[in-house]
Write a structure and sequence with these properties.
The chain is mainly beta and 560 residues long. 1% of the residues lie in helices and 44% in strands. It contains one helix and 42 strands. The strands form twelve sheets. The chain has a five-stranded mixed beta sheet, with no helix packed on it. A five-stranded mixed beta sheet has the order 4-6-11-8-9, with no helix packed on it. A hairpin with a 6-residue loop joins strand 15 and strand 16. The two termini are 34 Å apart.
């Protein structure tokens, strides 16, 4: 199937997840990506056609090229010739792993690039980096008028074809922002760090919603920042100990050399809890951060370690519904996240350092500290081999005049669990569609929800959210939705490439060729007992093929 997209002039840049609705099905998740530049194709029609500077494809500045690293035996390499003027930026970014839609992949997605002058001398180059992991990027200042050459190639040879996009422009290319976040809705003075011209002073208006914020500037890919409901505290590098006066707070600082560590002093009370989350590698810093909380001796000096944390599991980083082999290659897993309870009243020291020795001017971090919230998280999970998505398992697809049931998981994360019963309510459903779910008790991990479509429901799809509504109206809880689908995943590998969405899609299809009903039991089923429940299958429009039905973890066949 081929899709043609019409991109509006004001369409946001970057990745856009989508699904296609057909008469009978909703597809697995896919993505398309929007560039700020005109797009052209490499069109290498013969072996090794543009593999040297002499045969380089001529392109203009500020262009995106869709290319292919072929599976040829000698190893493919693609050259592009770009006219430049002395003193202008030459910034090059490759997207390969970040646009992959293959569930199984390997090092064919590990590309590299070089920027060369007319004489073939390398001006800049990159294989891996802290912002885009294994998708290379490089930026430099053109040394003279003339041309530069961009080479895209594999960092490790493997005989497989790899699609990529390479953005070539005169845009600035910082790597991280400092501070990397601020209060929601605020105007924040930021230094963009990592550009070859030096720090770039910027004034950024943060959104009114908390969470991740993607700042593009004039680049084709964003810098990740955070917007939070609480104020910023910036590290004072002229003191050995920064004072934290109140919580919640967002602490921002830089580990600026290999042996640097920063210290923050705060007061805590026994019986309270603090949710302490570090953001560093997750927004493109080269750090592998580690945090410690120390008591303070009676003489005022640092005492024993009360808590120490390094890496995180993905569920501690608010990522649910998929498991990555080996713990995952996602940057988030390098950032610690804990819930800490002080053992006594008094002052404590929070220390942050780097495990990797990568401290330097780009070594920024942000520590968000707040009391744990009460949150109900719903997640759609495809429990298939290697976590590939299966619409049969997790698709919210209901035939007209019929029903469809799907299991919703309720992962706990690091938040407080609600202590009361609550209902799940769907908002944004298509006309003629309803959702039914049983009332949920505290501690429930999985709940089935059933969608039903009326006989006159239109064949449409709709983006929905599922909200938790407490039975007790005096209780306040937050609701979140998530589905995470990993790509470039295979046996023995790590899938750091994933598509993650915070809404679901419900779709109505044409009528199914059969329907299933059961007789309502007249007696209760006791523990350890048995109960026969007749299942009635009605075939429609001459349908005579086989079918399946599922009851929890017990499957049945329809063969008569």
């Amino acid at each position: 199937m081929t899709c043609n997209f019409v991109i509006a002039p004001d369409c946001p840049l970057g990745e856009h997840p989508f699904r296609l609705l057909t008469a009978t099905q909703l597809t697995c998740i896919g993505t398309f990506h929007v560039s700020p530049y005109p797009v052209l194709d490499e069109k290498e029609t013969d072996y090794y056609q543009n593999d040297t500077m002499a045969t380089a494809l001529n392109v203009t500045m500020n262009v995106t090229v869709r290319g292919v690293i072929a599976s040829w035996g000698r190893g493919d390499s693609d050259f592009y010739r770009v006219p430049v003027k002395q003193g202008e930026h030459v910034s090059v970014e490759v997207e390969s792993a970040r646009i992959a839609d293959q569930h199984y992949g390997d090092s064919e997605y590990d590309l590299a690039l070089r920027i060369l002058d007319d004489a073939g001398k390398t001006i800049a180059g990159n294989d891996d980096n802290s912002l885009h992991v294994q998708d290379p990027m490089a930026s430099c200042i053109a040394p003279r008028d003339g041309s530069v050459y961009v080479e895209v190639f594999r960092s490790v040879f493997i005989g497989r074809e790899t699609q990529y996009c390479v953005h070539i422009g005169d845009h600035q290319r910082p790597v991280v922002a400092y501070p990397p976040g601020g209060p929601i809705g605020s105007s924040l003075a930021v230094a963009m760090l990592g550009d070859p011209s030096g720090p770039i002073a910027s004034q950024i208006t943060l959104p009114n919603e908390e969470g991740w914020y993607l700042y593009y500037g004039n680049a084709p890919s964003p810098i990740r920042m955070r917007a939070s409901k609480y104020p910023n505290l910036l590290e004072d590098s002229n003191t050995s100990e920064n004072r934290v006066e109140t919580f919640p707070i967002a602490i921002n600082g830089i580990i600026d050399h290999r042996d640097d560590f920063d210290t923050y002093r705060f007061t805590a009370k026994k019986g309270s809890s603090l949710h302490i989350r570090v953001f560093s590698a997750s927004f493109g810093s080269p750090l592998d951060p580690r945090i410690r909380i120390r008591t303070i001796d009676p003489d005022g000096k640092p005492g024993p370690i009360d808590m120490e944390s390094d890496d995180s599991r993905l569920e501690q980083r608010d990522t649910f519904g998929a498991t990555y082999r080996g713990g995952g290659g996602r940057q988030d897993a390098l950032d610690p996240s804990i819930v800490w309870e002080p053992k006594s009243d008094g002052d404590y020291l929070l220390e942050i350092a780097d495990n990797s020795g990568a401290g330097g001017p780009l070594g920024g971090y942000r520590i968000e500290i707040e009391p744990p919230r009460t949150i109900v998280q719903t997640a759609l999970t495809s429990r298939t081999f290697d976590w590939t998505e299966s619409m049969r398992v997790s698709g919210m697809i209901v035939p007209r005049n019929n029903r469809w049931t799907v299991n919703i998981t309720l992962p706990q994360g690091q938040w407080n669990a609600p202590r009361c019963d609550f209902d799940l309510i769907a908002t944004g459903l298509p006309p003629g569609v309803t959702m039914t779910a049983t009332r949920i008790k505290p501690g429930t991990g999985v709940v089935p929800v059933q969608f039903a479509a009326t006989v006159d429901a239109a064949t449409v799809g709709s983006v929905i959210a599922i909200e938790a509504v407490p039975v007790d109206p005096s209780v306040q809880i937050e609701s979140r939705c998530q589905q995470t689908v990993p790509f470039i995943n295979h046996s023995g590998g790590d899938a750091w490439r994933a598509v993650q969405v915070n809404e679901y899609i419900v779709a109505v299809t044409e009528p199914a060729p059969f329907s299933i009903d059961i007789e309502q039991p007249s007696v209760a089923l006791v523990r350890g007992g048995e109960l026969s429940i007749p299942v009635k299958v009605a075939r429609h429009n001459g349908f005579s093929g086989p079918g399946e039905f599922s009851v929890g973890y017990v499957n049945g066949a329809i063969d008569t």
